[in-house]
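Listing S7. Sequence submitted for prediction.
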Amino acid sequence: TTPAALGADWLTSLLDQNSGGWDASPLASRLELISLRWLRELFGLPADWDGVLVTGGQMANFTGLAAARQWWGERHGADVSVEGLAGLPQAPVLTSGFIHVTGLKALGMLGIGRGRLTTCADSVGAMDPAALEHELRALEGAPAIVIGNAGEVNAGLFDPIERIADLCDEYGAWLHVDG
């Protein structure tokens, strides 16, 4: 940790600003909107793309997979934030050979679980699009959550995100990218 990072962390804790609410912190909310616009422009994302800034990797995976859980529940006619997961089938989760421990932790904390975690990896552990397509096709239209990596922390692997996104669009799956 650098002195600047430590100082910024102390300042963040001291000010206790909640950028999730405009009323609590208009400046932090505005800075988040500006940062997201810059990211949209940098990566050439569509104008309707949106996002949120979170505190770190654990919360990023938790937030993204919470959105996936809500989407998955809606595909089964349930609002899981209100009704919970009881009575629903376990969600199929398709991933490469590497899923970060924070992703596994988030799956457990959110009640999605790891019981239907399926690996679709090539010989080095990256997502294999052919294996992913095989698994998605086998689901016969049932919703699934796909977890891709954009810079896996141990091996530095980048899954072929564009191809994975195309498959998720084609088969109606949710794509969560851990970056």
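Caption to Listing S7: primary sequence and predicted structure tokens for the chain studied. Residues 57-75 form the longest helix (19 residues). The CA atoms of residues 23 and 29 lie 9 Å apart.
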